[in-house]
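Why do we bother with holo predictions? Because pocket geometry can differ from the apo form. Keep that in mind while you read this record for MIG.
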Amino acid sequence: MIRRYDFGSPIHTGAVVRELPVENAAVPFFATEVKDSQVRFTIHMDADDLVFGLGESLRGINKRGHLYRAWNSDDFSHTENKASIYASHNLLLFSGKEKLFGVYFDDPGAMEFDLGYTRGDTAVITSENGDLSVYIIEADSLTAICKEFRGLIGRSYLPPKWAFGYIQSRWGYSSDPEVRNVVKEHRDRHIPLDGVCMDIDYMVDYKDFSWNKEAFPDLKQLCTDMKEENIRLIPIIDAGVKQLEGYDTCDVGLEKDYFVKKADGKPFVGAVWPGRSYFPDFLREDVRTWFGGEYSKLMDEGIEGFWNDMNEPALFYSEESIAEAFAVADKLRNENLDIHSAFALKDAFNGTANNMEDYRRFYHEVDGQTIRHDKIHNLYGAYMTRAAAEGFRRYDSSKRFLLFSRASFVGAHRYGGVWQGDNSSWWSHIKLNLQMLPSLNMCGFLYSGADLGGFSCNTTEDLMLRWLQLGVFSPLMRNHSADHTREQEVYRFANWEDMRDILTVRYGLLPYLYSEFMKAALSDGMYFRPLAFDYPTDDVACRVEDQVMLGSDCMIAPVYEQNARGRHVYLPEDMLMVRFRSATDYDLTPMEAGHYWIELALNEMPLFIRRGHVVPLAKPAEYVEGIDFTDLRLLGWLDEGVTT
Ligand code: MIG
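The structure, written out:
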């Protein structure tokens, strides 16, 4: 059962697809306070209450005990002190002896979620603008609440089948021979691969929908040749459009008035990779139609997948903020800088990026209304995703295209997937990757994954291998890294054969993983669930933060610690452990419910199959198209014994 309560004048966000009547009564469960146009929702939490939700956000699966902020932010340092990253998924689930319900705050502006941060027994949720709809969702289990919620927000995006293959990416690939070489290195060594991402270096001066004709003299031929090898190329598209006369995307955008504007009616100028840029007003349908159509320039060459970046939107500086910084610098130029002025100078420049003042400088048109950007900030990336997805549908409605975005809002889950942004090559980020996956699923984002191996910082061969062992289960399985970090394609490492073998596990399990994904997507279910969802009366299971249920039959428990040769695992019920070294080399151990220390050498990864269930395993293949979905072994612990 879902009930809706409105505050102020809610702005249409597009998150919800089902129109519900507005209740006149007060919101249940919360004490509500309206003050200075803010709305605050307060709820007492019992000692045992668990809080789930918030999709792509930092910290644990149980969100209780910290402060989070809905404010889509380009932040490449995912440390525990951060309250926001790239997405705002304002769903919370409260579960305890006295309460079981979900609440969705459909608010496109800034919100604060103080979940026992100020006071351990109290959650205070604040809408800063006070214009929102609140949905209270009740059902008899956490899984059922999420299903109801999906009914409210609509069905999840379906990527093409090949997008479940392994994808290699790196910021820096910049030419036809370089891309071909990455593919060759994989194919020569029989390392499975289905896609290669092209980062901003394929463009000319970072202009969207352009490609460097010298580096890629015949993109169409490259796409054709790659496709013959069962490889798809996946170029990046950034939100900002370079300010440049003679560049048609810019010219048309200006001529048709498609960019966001300042109060004086002039287009807002902010700098990103291409330097000074304009920002399409994706909230307008005509702008989406235009921008979504631009992707056809690349689709005409044979491209079938994209990733949308910098759509929080990220801003390096605006004309105004950089002018202010220079003014500070001019003033301090001849000073003997002390502790205060030296930092003031630094802060003046650091503060130009993703600056709150800038987000208040420009406006959108939403349903004929002019709305200042900060009021709807969290929608920007979602509407860029929607623009692209609608463009793909118009281009070829019979085909599924790959699309994943950095920024998102609930609603974008109908149009594309997400990646978890700029993580680091840190062991703690394997765990963070694991913890975000079920939370994203609660909010409808099923096709997701993190940069395997880590984006920033230098990876190591053991970190890479352990991270791939989690990546085996993540729908988007992409190795991506930043420019100037250690190269981390599998073939760069001394232990590349172990990595290749782990990749065969992905392809062996792919029939199962793909079908569980489709099942979740088509029945509004979850592919990843916290253990608390499946074992709500098991107090130990309810607090497990480093194991996750997968599909209807499995549990995963990756190793995420440096130098570990095993890990502790809690089995809430009898399970069969499959200890994989490759898709053809594994051993099986039936294990009764309980606590275990499990030995896992660096090249070994476990999968736990619930007793009485079976999981199919295919023969290894080097690309998704090559998997024989009819020649399957069944792994399981049945009454008759263990099947192999
Ligand atoms: O400011 O395109 O998150 O995946 O490699 C950095 C370069 C811009 C951020 C993305 C990352 C990508 C990078 N981009």
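The chain has a mean pLDDT of 97.
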